[in-house]
Amino acid sequence: MATPTPEIEVDRESGNFKYEESHKYDAGYGLTEKTIDYISDVKKEDDWIREFRKRALKVFEDKPMPTNWATKDLENIVFENIRYYLADGQRAKKSWDDVPDDVKETFERLGIPENERKFLAGVEAQFDSEAAYSNMKDSVMKQGVIFMGSTEALMKHPEIFRKWFGKVIPTGDNKFSALNSAAFSGGSFIYVPKGVKVSHPLQAYFRINAENFGQFERTLIIADEGSEVTYMEGCTAPKFDTATLHSAVVELVAMPGAKIEYVTVQNWSSNVFNLVTKRAIAHEDAVVKWVDCNIGSRLTMKYPGVILKGKRARGEVLSIALANDGQHQDTGAKMIHAADETTSNIISKSISVGEGRSTYRGQVHMPKHLKGCKNNTECDALLINTNSRTDTYPAITVRGNDNSVQHEASVSKVSAEQIFYMQQRGMSEGEAMSLSVNGFVNDLTRHFPMEYSVELKRLIELEMEGSVG
Amino acid sequence: MSNTLEITNLNVSIGDKQILKDFSLTIPKGEVHAIMGPNGTGKSTLAKAIAGHPDYEITSGEVLLDGESILDMEPDERSRAGLFLAFQYPMEIPGVSIANFIRAAKNARLSEDEELNAPAYYKELYEKMDMLQIDRKFTARSVNDGFSGGEKKRCEILQMAMLQPSYAVLDETDSGLDIDALKVVSEGVNTLRGDNLGVLVITHYQRLLDYIVPDVVHVMYDGRIVKSGDKNLALELESKGYDWVKELAPAGA
């Protein structure tokens, strides 16, 4: 018997719903020079950007998949079956009232306008390839902060952004940074002027709605001397039968004495290949902190890094990865010490559930000629049930006598006895597991902004309840 | 509805090995029963089996809580139905504070549209911690993580006090306690005694029963109760030793 098709498909997970797609601009399947011309034409880009893209396409085509060290699952990405640009051809709106209803409803269900009212200084909401909404509080704008999409920023403020665009992460850094450089669309460009401290976070939300699609946002944040900014990103996509690709490039530049905190809470559905390159340059006395929470996706490969270029610069990566059945979280951090007295701190917590798999890859580099550098690395893995797998590949290169490194790793298990103990107190198996997981990440999350630790706790609960068979 | 925890002809195995053999015992609300017996006789198996531990297979028999069978219930459902087990070896839950743990347990007892009143919760928690002479700083410590034996057992009784079960099984709560801790824990249990609570105290030693004075004492051997009596039975057992009970076991067992 035929049942009426519901207008919106919903299930348990907050992000798993989709609206019918109606895109005015669709670059079609596969990525060629023609695709790039299409994207550049629609975006009315300057020639240097078009050329940048085309050079990147060559690099992408020439570079092999990194399957010599990474998972063979990468070979299951069929680049010809992916659409590289989907947009409705409208500029990002400054008011939610002007955003098309289905897109607006999408973000309302994800709680974005509500959060904006509560605690954010500015929001950019990207739907497939382009931002549907972009707005910043007047007070922040008056301080001279620039917060807009990549296309618009490269056109309106080339003098600021072109200088650093592709400099922290060169096109040829890896196959997926090249792919992003060829097909990038959306993402945030932020400039915080000297001495300006943005009191509330700026937020971007990346939503994939279309099937057989690749989202390639490009983010560049420049915090000028002595400025401070917190940027948060959230990501979701509905659950499709086919693979979806998310391949972002995020570059951060912290000028002398600046502070950037970059917070990610991603909740991808289990069909998403999430292959993201994130790196920062920290100049003298600058501080860059990556807070990276990876939940969901089929495969995530992401190793946020900081190049500690100026004296006394500090880099931090605090990451949490939760790999449930059928998921592989391959995450880590890179700290490249390139000046005296630079310090770095990496704390990585991974949770593997069922058939889920977690991998930590870390790189800490301290050359011989440097003095007074310090690194602290802690990797903790939690296994829930016997099929889970976890691997740790720390690569620490430290030369010279005046530098110090501390490395600790631990693997623990949630035992059946612990679960039974908690159940005996009245909690269901799912509640017991999510309580253990939250306990495991607790010493990290209590340093997170409150709104994000609440959100993370909620996502962990949903994920763990779903994992009870 | 009968106000008892009624265990009838319970047979329990771990793997191929039968541990409890036609075990029967009825504990009415308002009474404290003690089970004594030598090691390896099935005392802890009884506790785990009625709490629903998945490793213990109940091959036949019945457990009725206020007249309702609990054998088809998950361990958490049995807990919410009013059964509490104070563990012989309480588990550590790293990163989860005592306050949050007990709160989660209380929340699990509320319906979806109910919410725990936080100030009232903390007031109650502090009162009960004071009663058990637990330092208030303990609320922020992770459950049983790095606790001494005595601290763990006090924390078990604190949970019992907060969750207010109708039946509590105390599994070797005296093990690992010095005499001062034993007194505090016993006083805690005695405070909770009353018409709305049935208690089963499992112990190897008579010493605990000087402080928690039972209404009935049962002697267990080889998976079943071989003798029952009043509190004097415990003293008799203490002076005669456990060899004496072996003679009480049915022939061929």
Summarize the structure.
Chain A is of the alpha/beta class. In chain A, 24% of the residues lie in helices and 36% in strands. Chain A has helices at 33-43, 47-62, 101-109, 112-119, 138-142, 150-156, 158-161, 175-183, 416-424, 429-445, 450-466; strands spanning 25-26, 86-87, 122-127, 130-136, 146-149, 188-192, 202-207, 214-215, 218-223, 228-236, 244-246, 249-254, 259-268, 272-282, 287-296, 299-302, 305-308, 314-323, 328-337, 343-353, 357-366, 374-384, 389-398, 404-414.
How would you sum up this structure, described in words?
The complex is a heterodimer of chains A (469) and B (253). By secondary structure, chain A is of the alpha/beta class. Among the domains of chain A are: 25-302, no CATH class; 423-469. Helix content of chain A is 24%, strand content 36%. Chain A contains 11 helices and 24 strands. In chain A, the strands form 3 sheets. In chain A, strands 5, 6, 8, 9, 11, 12, 14, 16, 17, 19, 21 and 23 form a 12-stranded mixed β-sheet that branches. With 253 residues, chain B is of the alpha/beta class. Chain B has one domain (4-246): Rossmann fold. Chain B is built from 9 helices and 12 strands. In chain B, helix 3 runs parallel beside helix 5 (149-163) and helix 5 packs parallel to helix 6. The mean pLDDT of chain B is 93.
Number of strands of chain A: 24
- What is the helix/strand order of chain B? EEEHEEHEEHHEHEHEHEEHH
Query: What's the pLDDT, averaged over the residues of chain B?
Result: 93
Q: Residue-averaged pLDDT of chain A, rounded?
A: 89
Question: Largest interface by residue count?
Answer: A-B, 25 and 30 residues
Strand content of chain B: 25-35%
Under CATH, the homologous superfamily of chain B reads P-loop containing nucleotide triphosphate hydrolases
Q: What helical percentage do the residues of chain A reach? A: 10-25%
